[in-house]
Design goal:
The complex is a heterodimer. Chain A is an alpha+beta fold. Chain A has 15 helices and 16 strands. Chain A has helices at residues 55-67, 164-181, 221-240, 286-295, 300-311, 315-321, 325-338, 341-358, 370-381, 387-400, 404-411, 419-432, 434-441, 446-458, 465-476, and strands at residues 5-16, 71-72, 75-76, 79-82, 92-95, 102-111, 114-127, 131-135, 140-144, 151-157, 193-203, 213-216, 248-253, 258-264, 274-275, 282-283. The radius of gyration of chain A is 29 Å and the shape is elongated. By secondary structure, chain B is of the alpha/beta class. Chain B contains 17 helices and eleven strands. In chain B, strands 1-3-2-4-6-5-10-11-9-7-8 form an eleven-stranded mixed sheet, sandwiched between helices. In chain B, α3 (25-43) crosses α17. The longest helix of chain B is centred in the last third of the chain and has 22 residues, at 375-396. Chain B is globular. The chains are: A alpha+beta, B alpha/beta. The interface between A and B is large, with 28 and 44 residues.
């Protein structure tokens, strides 16, 4: 590769909104449920049924748009996107083409070279489709309409990103904004946040964009990063070989770490968009926008400032804790119960993050109750257990959400504060390790550490290290 | 009361007699079922007749009337419902093969309202397939014949509803009107048909043809019945986003015969070329009646008339091409027996399930929406629609009511229309612009031509001004007595003699 290439990336991000009911009917949006139990004539496309817009969808879309510095189309409307597919009961999707609710916004991301604005082309509202299940045994396909009509917003960025790092930073920023607004939980693996990557390459310094491809089926940040790298290489190789990049939609296979073409521009469908005659235009008044602005919850920067002010957390700690809405929520709940913000922050940041990494879990899967962590903090604080034991208990809370008081009781993990028992245990250790005793008496301070360690081990970690130190010193005179 | 005495009553008259105990609802249902048995072999007004269900409903309703629970004017009155309006548990086919076995799981709002008022639903009436047609000849279940002369069509698409009312096979019926589908067959069958202002009656449960134009409405023997039925059907429905909250839900109070000072305009553009002289004469006579009663009648130029038909066929077909895409053989309705692959199933099911007129409009609609043509056709049609509305706005700044023909001719002979679809489309010229502008329109029978076929005159008012056409229609109607087709009268007599 002699030439220098620049990668140009734009994203289409679908986000499932956290409404209780669907976008055009009153069926539940709850995940799971036996197939076709969250359905009605509207979301199964029965003849004669009609859509009625869920106002909460508009409010969430507005909230996200305002947080992403967008202009609002105060007279917006829905259009029908016509295509035949069995997961789509009407054979058209109700979406927005001509007048999307939000347009021309931006979010700011941090890059190695400083802050950068990523433009938002538009945000529009639409309905999700059902799910097809292919039965290999019966050689037939079944359709589950529980997801049909679940509200989505699609956030279309400008082609402003130049690397996988920028893409991840942009996605993380979007996710944080949306989670803080409560508009969605944005779980990539469960599909409540999905990103399609539009990518092209061009010679560094070129003014025209290259031909782009669209990459689908990206289920994690890691997959997105790998797909970007893979597609960048693929396109550069084509160009270096004197071949043309074909404008097409490709599907990423994260196991094979490669992609294959799904459809090219030539067989791109004509969706025959037109305004949905069943849904009158939505009129969004200044007052409505104002009330959404006023209801806007505390966003990350405000939260960070408050944590430093109210809980005296360091800027570093506040940054990490607010890096996930979910973690910030747990932190606040724990603090509210035990009134020990620094302890709460430490447990979450150190042990919590370590265990997440160890078990390859997403932040959202940290689901233990705040009450249990608060109890653990109290147990340590009042000296019922020592820190070594507490780490073990925390792991149990993290994995199984156990009640630490009962766990400590049942496992007999309380600190042994019985002086007599401690003293006889130490005497036994001293008797068994005469060399170390002599070393210590000869001025080798390190021997003390060894003896403490041996004592702790014989006490199965339950001894109060302070008491052990004190008694040892007494006995060694 | 004898069966023929019962069958000669209007819906409101029958409701009154049931309440007064002179006749019971089951007796009325039996009379209607008897008439259906006599007439159906000739007419074919119905797709589905729910004999058992109707009798059961009538028994229950009779008890609720006697207990004083049901007091409305339609309680106990047998009615029919056009087969594009969903009824729970009863086949709803749109007169199409593709829905030939479709049984809805829910009731349309209009049906709910009828049931709440205590009407007894006898069955589902025949229509042009998916309401596309002007003759009821495009039905997959055979043509419906005109009770005035079975060699002629009843009009369409609500031909089954209008023929059934004319032949006393029910006391009133629900129709739907997208471009004249209530008013034109009403005029061909000598009955009264009303298309209310768009949004007055919920479309929830009406299987859509052209969503922005479709409106359910009553077909009945006279204007009084239409007003009473409209009072029952009209409601603001949260299940239909295009349903409107009206200020006025009382319609019968305008049936006074008083038209003094009412300003009536006759569009010169409606009275020219293509209009049969006998129909023209009827319109002028109706004008005279109104004038004699104190109305002020003038002729004026409405304008935009020649653009209504192309605009309508673009908009209605575009919406239909999308509305009808859900009929794909996947979830309900007809699926081809043999096919390969998903797209093979779609293509074969739809090719075999839809008739030629429906296919023509799906293709037309898909074409005008396709990329590169959208602006030239669909968008232009929407602009034309806005201009037509503007022309009516101007007219209604001067007139309370527009008077004209409902159709250029009386009922054509069977088979005459389908061979030339463009000519058939031109037959909608006086009704279509009313749908494009969302206005209420009423077709009132006003005499017959020399062949003995009924002529209807049409009264149009501004949006939400049904009161003006009900007032004028009632006055026009008072100058005549309701006539039943001789065929239906004969069937009633013969049954009696037996």
């Amino acid at each position: 590769m002699s030439k220098q290439y620049e990668t140009v990336i734009g994203l289409e991000v679908h986000v499932e909104l956290a409404t209780k009911t669907k976008i055009f009917c009153s069926c539940s949006t709850e995940f799971g449920g036996a197939p076709n139990t969250h359905t009605c004539p509207v979301c199964t496309g029965m003849p004669g049924s009609l859509p009625v817009l869920n106002k909460q969808v508009v409010e969430y879309a507005l909230a996200v748009g305002l947080a992403a510095n967008c202009q609002i189309n105060q007279n917006c409307k829905f259009d029908r996107k016509n295509y035949f597919y069995p997961d789509n009961p009407q054979n058209y999707q109700i979406s927005q083409l001509y007048l999307p609710i939000c347009h021309d916004g931006y979010v700011e991301i941090d890059t190695a070279a400083g802050k950068k604005k990523i433009g938002i082309h538009e945000i529009h509202m639409e309905e999700d489709a059902g799910k097809l299940i292919h039965d290999e045994w019966e050689d037939c396909s079944l359709v589950d309409f529980n997801r049909s009509g679940v509200p989505l917003i699609e956030i279309v960025s400008e082609p402003d990103m130049r690397s996988a790092d920028e893409v991840i930073a942009y996605l993380e920023k979007l996710r944080l904004i949306i989670q803080y607004l409560g508009a969605s939980d944005c779980k990539l693996q469960e599909g409540s946040m999905r990103a399609d990557v539009n990518l092209s390459v061009r010679e560094a310094g070129a003014s025209q964009f290259g031909t782009r491809t669209e990459m689908k089926n990206l289920n994690s940040f890691k997959a997105i990063a790998r797909a970007i790298e893979g597609e960048r290489k693929r396109q550069i190789e084509l160009i270096e070989d004197g071949k043309a990049v074909v404008q097409e939609t490709r599907r990423w296979d994260d196991n094979k770490e490669s992609s294959h073409a799904m459809r090219s521009k030539e067989d791109a469908k004509d969706y025959r968009y037109f305004p949905d005659p069943d849904l009158p235009p939505i009129s969004i008044s200044d007052e409505w926008i104002q009330s959404i602005k006023e209801k806007q919850p505390e966003l990350r920067t405000e939260k960070m400032a408050r944590y430093q002010e109210e809980y005296s957390l360091s800027e570093y700690d506040a940054d990490i804790i607010t890096g996930s809405k979910h973690m910030a929520d747990i932190f606040e709940q724990v603090t509210a119960i035990c009134q020990k913000p620094k302890e709460a922050a430490n447990w979450l940041m150190v042990e919590g993050m370590r265990l997440l990494k160890e078990h390859e879990m997403e932040m959202e899967n940290m689901t233990f109750s705040a009450e249990n962590l608060a109890k653990l903090i109290v147990l340590v604080d009042n000296g019922t257990i020592n820190r070594t034991v507490a780490k073990e208990v925390f792991e149990q809370i993290f994995l199984n959400d156990i009640d630490p008081e009962r766990y400590v009781e049942e496992k007999g993990l309380k600190v042994v504060s019985d002086e007599g028992a401690l003293k006889s245990a130490i005497e036994a250790i001293l008797a068994a390790n005469p060399q170390s005793v002599e070393d210590y008496r000869n001025g080798k301070e390190k021997a003390m550490g060894f003896l403490v360690g041996q004592t702790m081990r014989s006490m199965k970690g339950k001894a109060d290290p302070g008491a052990v130190n004190r008694i040892l010193k007494e006995l060694l005179g | 009361m004898t069966a023929s005495e019962i069958l000669s009553l209007t819906a409101v008259q029958l409701g009154k007699k049931i309440k007064e105990g002179e006749v019971t609802s089951p007796e009325a249902v039996k009379a209607v079922l008897g008439q259906i048995k006599a007439m159906e072999p000739e007419l074919n007004s119905y797709v589905t007749i729910d004999e058992e269900g109707a009798l059961k409903q009538a028994e229950e309703i009779q008890k609720r009337i006697e207990s004083g629970e049901l007091t409305g004017p339609l309680a106990g009155v047998p009615a029919a419902v056009k087969d594009n309006i969903c009824m729970e548990g009863l086949k709803t086919t749109c007169s199409s093969k593709i829905l030939s076995d479709f049984v809805p799981t829910y009731n349309a709002k209009a049906v709910e309202n009828l049931k709440q008022a205590g009407a007894v639903i006898i069955g589902k009436t025949n229509m042009d397939e998916f309401a596309m047609g002007s003759t009821t000849e495009t039905s997959a279940f055979g043509v419906t014949r005109n009770p005035w002369n079975p060699e002629h069509v009843p009009g369409g698409s609500s031909g089954g509803s209008c023929a059934a009312v004319a032949a006393a096979e029910c006391f009133f019926a629900l129709g739907s009107d997208t471009g004249g589908s209530i008013r034109q067959p009403a005029s061909f069958c000598g009955v009264t048909g009303l298309k209310p202002t768009y949004g007055t009656i919920s479309r929830y449960g009406l299987i859509a043809y052209g969503s922005s134009l479709d409106q359910i409405g009553p077909v009945a023997k006279d204007v009084t019945d239409c007003a009473a039925i409209l009072e029952v059907l009209a409601s603001h429905d949260g299940m239909d986003s295009t349903s409107v909250q009206r200020e006025d839900y009382e319609f019968t109070r305008y049936l006074t015969g008083e038209v003094k000072g009412l300003k009536v305009g006759i569009p010169a553009d409606y009275m020219g070329e293509g209009l049969e002289p006998e129909v023209k004469e009827a319109v002028l006579k109706a004008a005279k009646v109104l004038e004699e009663k104190g109305a002020v009648v003038e002729t004026f130029d409405l304008g935009m008339v020649e653009y209504a038909i192309p605009a309508y066929y673009v908009i209605a077909s575009a919406e239909a091409s999308s509305n009808l895409s859900r009929f794909d053989g996947v979830k309900y309705g007809y699926r081809a027996k043999e096919y390969t692959g998903l797209h093979g199933m779609y293509k074969k099911s739809r090719s075999e399930g839809f008739g030629p007129e429906v296919k023509r409009r799906i293709m037309l609609g898909s074409f005008v929406l396709s990329s590169g043509y959208y602006d030239a056709y669909y968008l232009k049609a929407l602009k034309t629609k806005a201009l037509i509305k503007k022309a009516f706005d101007e007219a209604f700044s001067k007139y309370d009511v527009i008077l004209g023909p409902a159709a250029p001719t009386t009922a054509p002979r069977l088979g005459e229309s389908l061979s030339d679809p463009l000519k058939m489309y031109l037959g909608d010229i006086y009704t279509i612009s009313v749908n494009l502008a969302g206005l209420p329109g009423l077709s009132v029978p006003f005499g017959t031509d020399e062949k003995g076929l009924p002529i209807g005159v049409q009264l149009i008012a501004d949006c939400f001004q049904e009161k003006n056409i009900l007032r004028a229609g009632f006055a026009v109607e008072q100058s005549r007595t309701y006539k039943m087709p001789s065929l239906a009268a004969k069937a009633m007599r013969e049954k009696e003699e037996k």
